[in-house]
Amino acid sequence: MSKRFLAALLLTFAGISASHAADEVVVYSARAEQLIKPMFDAFTKETGIPVKFITDKEGPLMERLKAEGPNTPADVLLTVDAGNLWQAANEGLLKPVQSGVLDKNVPVHLKDPDNQWFGLSIRARTIVYNTKALKPADLSTYEDLANPKWKGKLCLRTSKKVYNQSLVAMMIAEKGEAETEKIVRGWVSNLATDVFPDDTKLMEAIAAGQCQVGIVNTYYYGRLLEKKPDLTLALFWPNQQTTGVHVNVSGAGVVKHAKNEKAAVRLLEWFTSEQGQKMFADLNMEYPANPAFKPDTVVAGWGSFKQNLINVAKAGELQAAAVRLMDRARYK
Ligand code: FE
Known about the structure:
Helix content: 40-55%
Number of domains: 2
CATH architecture of the largest domain: 3-Layer(aba) Sandwich
Largest sheet: 10 strands, mixed
Number of strands: 10
Bound molecules: fe (iii) ion
């Protein structure tokens, strides 16, 4: 046996073991390890299908999928925000999936119209306020926060965060650009201080009285109140008489060059099952995407709300327009 042949043979074996065993599923995840590992363990226990995964930010994961092309070991891309999922589909990294289980378990507004990705948990981006400064009756809608009565009282997170880009994109989908720009300009002129790098710092500023009201994802509220239960903060569900609370998703799609599509679909389906939904939503204090199941008791304690039923794919389609609009409005 020639040395070169031996080297090639070894490389082949190494390649197989590093990439893909026949009946395992490989996940690229932008969701943190502590939120996904327990689910994969439960899935493996139930189905016998092993799960391998890597975690990273969505940008590098998508770059990696692009670079690996047909040679990728990945079967599933798991990430947060419909804007990111839409981007992955738009760049040809995912493939459409036909599954009666997913069709039944995931509401139409929470998945890609072409079935390339599916929302698995709902993240509500809602209003938070200081209960020493305001009563629920003072609040009504996202749009109302542009009213000059809130001058110097509003705190916002940076427009660089995809969550706010998605929120504004959905507003564009509903109201058009001109109307949305008016609202965003109103927000900016009501800001009490510079924009915040994250939702938690924003809530701490509200609790400290630097401002009275802001917009956050509810799971950050849950995490903060768990650590500091005495903060005088409460959530408010806006737009209940109109369009509903802005929701987004964590979700997943099957990778275009998946080696084990069957197991990949099985994993997605399992995520939408009772146990999968419990774990997917509860581990991060989010809401189950499957309406058959209830959120955990702490989350349920924040009250129920009418959600906006516009398809979350719009967050991706209109993301670039939203970024330009926020730039014009000098929302930093
Ligand atoms: Fe987040």
